[in-house]
Design a protein that fits this description.
rod-shaped, mainly alpha, 1 helix
Length: 53
């Protein structure tokens, strides 16, 4: 009884940890995408200015 209870508790904590890791990865991925999107946007503006010159 005690063994199965701790096993279930371990599975739950593992699941929670995995979920937290996935959320962290998603946040980092979105952060990187947003960062690169802003970089591309800035480079696009710079290119337009260079072409106008």
């Amino acid at each position: 009884m005690g063994v199965t209870k701790s096993f279930a508790a371990n599975r739950v904590t593992n699941f929670v940890e995995i979920k937290a890791n996935i959320l962290a990865v998603i946040k980092i991925t979105f952060g990187i995408r947003k960062f690169f999107g802003e970089l591309v946007f800035v480079f696009g503006i710079l290119l337009i200015f260079i072409k106008k010159l």
